[in-house]
Structures are given as C-alpha cells and as structure tokens.
Design goal:
Length: 177
C-alpha cells in the first residue's frame, strides 16, 4: 500500500450473538464524504468474537481501492488482536505465547490481508453508550440474528451449533457441512 492511500473512509462495526456460541450477526456502517453504506450478515452458529471480526472484515472487504480508514469497534478483542497480538502470532506460526493455536485464525488471516491494502487506524469506542453509528451497527447485527432465527427451526439451529462446536474442537471444516 502506498503511504498516500486514497480517500478517507470511516467504518463502524459491531457483532452480536445470542448465546456464545449461538446464532450471530455482524454489521458495518461505512462513510466517505457524502456517501454512506450499510452492510450486514450472520451465521446460524458462531461466537461473539467471530461476529466482531466478521464485521471488521466486511467493512474492509467492500473497499475497492487503498484508503485511509478509521475503523471503530467496540471489541477490545479486535482492537488488541490486530494492533498488539497479531505480529507475535505470525512470528510464532499462528500460536499464542502459550504455544496454543490462535482462536479464529481463519478470520484473523482474512482481516490481516484486507487491512494490509489500506492505512487503517483502529479505534475503540464503548459499546451501548449511545454512539449513533455504533448503535446502528448493533441494531443491524441484532436484526441479522432475528432473520436467522426466523429462517431456521430449533432443530436446525441445534444441528448448526453441534457442527460448529465439533469444528471448533478440531473436527475440521467438514464438520460444518
């Protein structure tokens, strides 16, 4: 990325999860000049941390050229992970200081690759504190959870959750199929 990355973009992100793990949603609000874009998505079985990561990934993924980005998250996990822990994880072969596999490595790798194309300033803000754009992201993420609940039976959600837990325990990607 060049030091004179193009336009300035402000991105607000948030994730939500009913149960942890459980059905989850994520959202991002992007603003540049007079332009504003809202994006959101969800998964039938996930964790809150994964949704917070997905929100940041989603926000950066829609940018089509290198930008100067101020990305706001209410997740200390996302902010500290990307600004403090990631370099050590990469040096240690995606292992923590305690030699354990990095949780959510797949999403951290995606976020790292997307962030490399931009000049990102990672900013934390207190969630559920009345900040207009953070509250909007929260509302969009929670709405995704509601959509997932309406689209799936209780049995389907339990099956997704069981597959997710197997995958998280090392059952591999096939456990999600």
């Amino acid at each position: 990325m060049s030091a004179d990355a193009g336009k300035e973009v402000v991105v607000y992100t948030d994730g939500a999860c009913e149960g942890n793990p459980g059905p989850g949603g994520w959202a991002a609000v992007l603003m540049s000049g007079r332009h504003r874009k809202e994006i959101s998505g969800g998964e039938p079985a996930t964790t809150n941390n994964r949704m917070e990561l997905r929100a940041a990934i989603g926000g950066l993924a829609v940018l089509t050229e290198p930008c100067r980005v101020s990305l706001y998250t209410d997740s200390v996990y996302v902010r500290d992970g990307i600004t403090r822990w990631l370099p050590g994880w990469k040096r240690n072969g995606w292992r923590t200081r305690d030699k354990q596999p990095v949780k959510n490595e797949d999403l951290w790798r995606q976020l790292d690759a997307l962030a490399a194309a931009h000049r990102v300033e990672w900013r934390w803000l207190k969630g559920h504190a009345g900040h207009e754009h953070n509250e909007r992201c929260d509302g969009l993420a929670v709405a995704q959870v509601a959509l997932i609940r309406r689209a799936h039976t209780g049995a389907q959600l339990r099956d997704h959750l069981a597959a997710f837990r197997r995958q998280q325990a090392g059952g591999g990607e096939d456990a999600l199929l």
